[in-house]
TrEMBL record:
Signal peptide region: none
GO molecular-function terms, A-Z: transmembrane transporter activity
Membrane topology recorded in Swiss-Prot or TrEMBL: Single-pass membrane protein
Stated name of the protein: Tol-Pal system protein TolR
Subunit structure: The Tol-Pal system is composed of five core proteins: the inner membrane proteins TolA, TolQ and TolR, the periplasmic protein TolB and the outer membrane protein Pal. They form a network linking the inner and outer membranes and the peptidoglycan layer.
Residues that span the membrane, as ranges: 21-43
Gene Ontology CC: one annotated term: plasma membrane
Organism annotation: Kangiella profundi
Family: Belongs to the ExbD/TolR family.
Taxonomic superkingdom: Bacteria
InterPro entries to which the protein is assigned, alphabetical: ExbD (IPR003400), Tol-Pal_TolR (IPR014168)
Compartment(s) of residence: Cell inner membrane; Cell membrane
């Protein structure tokens, strides 16, 4: 007597195995967590030192205008950054941003080696073009 063996047909498995994707995601997360604090944003500017009080956190986000030793300008507004601009480009960026943040103070972060005339010219342009009266100079604490 012969036995009849009934064979079942296998159906293909249509499920996606997501475990490798989760592993890759966790590895990337660890890499970003380790490297994020090492990345420093900003331009190195050697500020002069002076006795001054820090800005209170209650105020609106200031525009931080930086002047490097080579007299190029950059600007930070919160997390947005504008780099290596001329004075004319800086003024056009400030004009656009003043519409969104009309009462924001402007802080000037000038390098110690920048000629005094460049800072005065910047302050004069801010006053003449935009009527900005709330301008501060940033320093390092003593």
């Amino acid at each position: 007597m012969s036995q009849l063996v009934r064979r079942e047909r296998r159906r293909p498995n249509a499920e996606i195995n997501v475990v490798p994707y989760i592993d890759v995601m966790l590895v990337l997360l660890v890499i970003f967590m380790i490297t994020a604090p090492l990345i420093t944003a900003g331009i190195d500017v050697e500020l002069p030192s002076a006795h001054a009080e820090p800005i209170s956190p209650d105020e609106t986000t200031p525009f931080v205008v930086g002047v490097k030793a080579d007299e190029s300008f950059h600007m930070d507004i919160g997390s947005r950054q504008f780099r290596d601009m001329t004075l004319e480009e800086l003024m056009s960026v400030i004009a656009k941003e003043q519409q969104n943040y009309p009462n924001s103070p402007i802080m000037i972060k000038g390098d110690r080696n920048v000629p005094y005339g460049t800072i005065v010219e910047l302050m004069d342009q801010l006053r003449q073009q935009f009527g900005v009266e709330n301008v501060g100079l940033m320093t390092n604490p003593l």
